[in-house]
Amino acid sequence: MIVITGASSGLGAALAKLYSEEGAELLISGRNEQRLREVSDPLSDKVQSKTANLSRADDIKALFDTCLHTPKSIIHCAGSGYFGALEDQEPDAINALIENNVTSAIMLLREAVKRYKEQAVTVVIVMSTAALAAKAGESTYCAAKWAVRGLVESVRLELKGSPMKLIAVYPGGMATEFWPSSGKSLDTSGFMSADEAATMLKQALVGTEHGYVSDITIARG
Amino acid sequence: MIVITGASSGLGAALAKLYSEEGAELLISGRNEQRLREVSDPLSDKVQSKTANLSRADDIKALFDTCLHTPKSIIHCAGSGYFGALEDQEPDAINALIENNVTSAIMLLREAVKRYKEQAVTVVIVMSTAALAAKAGESTYCAAKWAVRGLVESVRLELKGSPMKLIAVYPGGMATEFWPSSGKSLDTSGFMSADEAATMLKQALVGTEHGYVSDITIARG
Amino acid sequence: MIVITGASSGLGAALAKLYSEEGAELLISGRNEQRLREVSDPLSDKVQSKTANLSRADDIKALFDTCLHTPKSIIHCAGSGYFGALEDQEPDAINALIENNVTSAIMLLREAVKRYKEQAVTVVIVMSTAALAAKAGESTYCAAKWAVRGLVESVRLELKGSPMKLIAVYPGGMATEFWPSSGKSLDTSGFMSADEAATMLKQALVGTEHGYVSDITIARG
Amino acid sequence: MIVITGASSGLGAALAKLYSEEGAELLISGRNEQRLREVSDPLSDKVQSKTANLSRADDIKALFDTCLHTPKSIIHCAGSGYFGALEDQEPDAINALIENNVTSAIMLLREAVKRYKEQAVTVVIVMSTAALAAKAGESTYCAAKWAVRGLVESVRLELKGSPMKLIAVYPGGMATEFWPSSGKSLDTSGFMSADEAATMLKQALVGTEHGYVSDITIARG
After folding, report:
1. C23 neighbors C17 (Cβ within 8 angstroms)
2. pLDDT of residue A190
3. Given the DSSP bridges, would you call strands A26-30 and B47-51 parallel, antiparallel or unpaired?
4. Helix and strand tally (H, E) in chain C?
């Protein structure tokens, strides 16, 4: 079983479709029930969905309680964007950005480690190339994504010797609803689609007996 | 005038004392009124104090409204610690950690940029060596500090050409109340004191006509 | 056509085998003629080999002059290791380490950019996880690998808008002849084999119309 | 006693002047005897000079053999620049760049660690902001400087528990002979002078009983 968060749109939805097509058992999650249903309805009946606000520890508990057995992978795609010069950003939107990206990643990873650290579970944390470099006009978004990277790198050290694996994914900008909802208007016609990114990510998530691809950056171009 | 946040203890209090001793006009801030007064009372009458919860944009506005003229420097020392294996950390304490370190740094820097970006104001953001490296047992603290570093590096790009300067400071662990309040018990007898760190930081904050020290790491040892 | 350097052993040899098995046209290179022949002899007759000392610009010119048409990919695996406490390292071995890793990567990438920067050529630069973090006992090796990373990241900026793509690969330690030849003796029984790493790398080197996997870390475990 | 390398011009010469003015005993080094003498002649008679090619281990031995007692600090300023699009760079100049920056730093630090690792010697390694970020048009220079940073960070780990301290310094571009000699022509009229950088660096090199400033970036502006 594979758990996918942020599955009601974008990369999460595209991954849900891809994995479902090859018959995987899935538990997909998002905040918006209707949009989540629009994603899950066309998929196979091995796909279960459950709404959750991942910034709340209780919602995450409830999400994992739904799993009848230990998931093989957890792919954390949830997140949101918010952009603009720092002085033009609104406090409420900044707080939402932090919740949607930082708090949710911490709470999700915390519960995953709590439950599964002694098992061979792969946790894939999807961030952004904004986690790897500073960018003008994206200061709080970079802050949020750098936070998640600091979290992932630190928890890797805590998991030394554990069979649980953390995989860090850094996609560049995709042509998804992410942009309109972030308040940033830009021409995304040359951007990769969520389907393209999902195809690449799924293929690059490869492991062998003694190793695995642990960090993946997906660039535009 | 110099504004110092997080001045009710630790490095912030030590810096307030040092700058006050050489006659500087100060505005110091902290969350706890009584502790802030214990710091400010023994200092010169050029030291003004004002409580503020820096995770609230309104408190920050009120703080800067107190300044009769543009501050020469803003030294942001506010922050708190919280440690332990990720799975043992409590949601409420994680939320407080994010507020005290991430939200407050964003809100403070946002207001400073908003007001003073066209002026020669130096904003010193005190983080921690945890902003520079991942650490087991400090995953959420590293997350919070990496966030602030991502913020600072991005806002630097936004300030290109502006007379405002951002200075990043990364102190190693000090022997302060920070540790007891973080829930981590460790022997800090060989750690530098807040006074030592303040002395070094004050001296290293040097600039000339065409340049300035922009990043300072202060190590133990 | 695919050009593979460092193909006389380790990851380079394993990649040559894999690509050859699926019928690719290859030009493989290494410093030692006999070992290179031992790799190429069992492979298909679409595999051409040519010795080259990649720290010499002329050898690299001669290598690419051998290509009858523009290669689709250049996979640079050449490199060597040298370890130990800094004060115990020998000047001659340090110089060889720098040549084999830094000079060769610069000279190879320089020639590739010179010839092919206006074409859709993918240059894969294989480094090491030592390019991503400092390590005690590996100071000069880290220096050499950090150099290559600095090179790759900078040349990426120079190639902005060019159809040429640079892909950075960071494998963890493999169970290959690399270790005996580095003077470091360690138990590599749990390490991934070069074949495992080659299988993962080949699969993760994926691209679509608007994007591609640009950075890949392959971890042990 | 303070040892300063790269003292025949730029930051090294400026530091020699500053430390000499306050009566410090110095051993200064450079490759060019005449230029080194032009620096040392006007200084106090507590300043000794010795030519050395720091990419040769023997020259470094001879340099330190000149020290009658253990130096308190070693300030390594030697280095050179070379710029331009990678494909336009010349192999010989690339080799010289590597020698002057990478090989010399390794050999110098190796000898310093060998002799003094059990003593309270401070080794200051002056790099460049090019060690901290990739830059178009500076690919090999960034490579060289990233190498030195990888070296310094790794040797720090090897020195854990040793009284020897490594201090990393990252100055931005200065208005010195560095630029004409690098083949890059640019307007440096707004750059800081070597004297300004030396003044800031000297002041920021501060330590107390339990701590010290370990990393200093000096920015233009």
Report:
1. no
2. 84
3. unpaired
4. 8, 7
pLDDT tens for chain A, residues 1 to 221:
999 999 999 999 999 999 999 999 999 999 999 999 999 999 999 999 999 999 999 999 999 999 989 999 999 999 999 999 999 999 999 999 999 999 999 999 999 999 999 999 999 999 999 999 999 999 999 999 999 999 999 999 999 999 999 999 999 988 877 777 777 777 888 899 999 999 999 999 999 999 999 999 999 98
Burial of B102 (0-12, 13-18, 19+ CB in 10 A): buried
pLDDT for residue B29: 98
- Chosen from A206, A209, A220 to mutate, greatest number of chain C CBs within 10 A: A206
On whether the CB atoms of residues B181 and B93 are closer than 8 A, the answer is: no
Helix (H, G, I), strand (E, B) or coil at A209: coil
- In D178-197, the residues whose Cβ lies within 8 Å of chain B are 190-193, 196-197
> Does B213 contact D at CB distance below 8 Å?
yes
Minimal-distance CA residue of chain C relative to D98: C103
* Predicted pLDDT at A185: 76
Largest Cα–Cα distance in chain B? 50
The C-alpha atoms of residue D192 and residue D157 are separated, in whole angstroms, by 33
Nearest to residue A91, comparing CAs of B51, B146, B106? B106
A103 with B94: Cβ contact below 8 A: yes
Which amino acid belongs to residue B211? Answer: G
pLDDT beyond 80 at D161: yes
ipTM of the modeled complex:
0.96
- Is there a contact between C215 and A213 if contact means CB atoms under 8 Å apart? no
Say whether B126 sits in a helix, a strand or coil: strand
- Position D176 scores a pLDDT of 78
- Tell whether C114 lies on the interface with D, counting CB pairs under 8 A: yes
Q: Do C151 and D143 touch (CB under 8 A)?
A: yes
Average pLDDT over residues B129-156: 98
The string of pLDDT tens digits covering residues B156-184 is 999 999 999 999 999 998 887 777 777 77
pLDDT in tens, C176-198: 777 777 777 778 888 999 999 99
Q: In chain C, positions 83-112, which contact chain D (CB-CB < 8 Å)?
A: 85-87, 89, 91, 94-95, 98, 102-103, 106-107, 109-110
E-strand spans in A70-145?
73-76, 122-126
- Could you confirm whether domain C2-218 is CATH 1.10.10.60? no
CA separation for the pair D32, D53 (Å, rounded) = 9
Distance CA B48, CA B41 (A): 10
The shortest C-alpha distance from B34 to chain D (Å) reads 30
Q: What are phi and psi of C219, to 5 degrees?
A: -100, 155
Residues of B in contact with D209 (CB under 8 A): 192, 196
Q: Which pLDDT tens digit goes with each residue over D115-157?
A: 999 999 999 999 999 999 999 999 999 999 999 999 999 999 9
CA within 13 Å, CB half, C203:
18
Is C198 in CB contact (< 8 Å) with chain D?
A: no
Q: Which residues of B touch A150 (CB under 8 A)?
A: 131, 134, 139, 142-147
Q: Which two tokens stand for residue A166?
A: 């953390």
Q: Are A23 and A88 in contact (CB under 8 A)?
A: no
Backbone angles phi, psi at B123, to 5 degrees: -110, 115
pLDDT score of C182: 78
Is residue B36 within 8 A of residue B28, CB to CB? The reply is: yes
Is residue A69 classed exposed, middle or buried when 0-12, 13-18 and 19+ CB atoms within 10 A define those classes? Answer: exposed
- Across the interface, whether the CB atoms of B206 and D199 are under 8 A apart is answered yes
Radius of gyration of chain D (CA): 16
Residues for chain A: how many in total? 221
Residue A12 token pair: 């999460």
| CA B118/CA B114 separation, integer angstroms | 9
